Amino acid sequence: MEIVRRLPYIQTLIFSTSDDDMLEDRIIFLNGDFVPWSQATVHMMCHSFGRGSAIFEVLSFHETNAGPAVFRLDEHINRLFRTAQLLDMELPLSREEFHEAVLGTVKRNGLKKGFIKIIGFYPQIAFEILPPQKRLDVSIFVRDPSQDPGGREFPFERGTAACRGLNVRMVIMTFPKPNHPVG
After folding, report:
1. Tell me: the pLDDT tens digits for 34-55?
2. pLDDT digit string, tens, across residues 53-92
3. Where are the domains of the chain?
4. Angstrom distance (rounded) from CA 34 to CA 137
5. Bridge partners for 154 per DSSP
6. CA of 58: how far to CAs of 6, 94, 128, 159, 168, in Å?
7. Topology, domain 26-143
8. Residues near 134 by Cβ (< 8 Å), separated by ≥ 6?
């Protein structure tokens, strides 16, 4: 990992292709199946990539005496469903299936702590403004910043500093504040 440019609020990172080798043993949840990291691909002309029509949630999981524990899993899944509903998107899994998929992804990767990213996206190649269907595809990734390229271990013992960057005001009816649309 090489830090190319450091601004007060922004860091830009560059990863070499050899960084992918470190993640080759990772397992991804993709549309109901657990697949190798290398199979988690989307075409460059898919609607979500070209139009930003995707939703996501980022969760943390922590090491405990009883094994890894996902922080507020139910709340994150409920927020993902609320975001999908507000944007007229359909998720392909039930809340229970998401719960099992998240826990299964953590377990299959053998990590003790880290972050989970759930992404709902339209994989179809589409040039239209509106997506070709309402139903999303779903992927779930896990990573441990202390082991993975570009990551830094979160300093749980000593805390961390937080800052607020530029504040862009959106039209109040555009997106509800607690949700995570990509575009």
Report:
1. 999 888 888 888 888 888 899 9
2. 999 999 999 999 999 999 999 999 999 999 999 999 999 9
3. 26-143
4. 14
5. none
6. 24, 18, 28, 19, 21
7. D-amino Acid Aminotransferase; Chain A, domain 1 (3.30.470)
8. 88, 89, 90
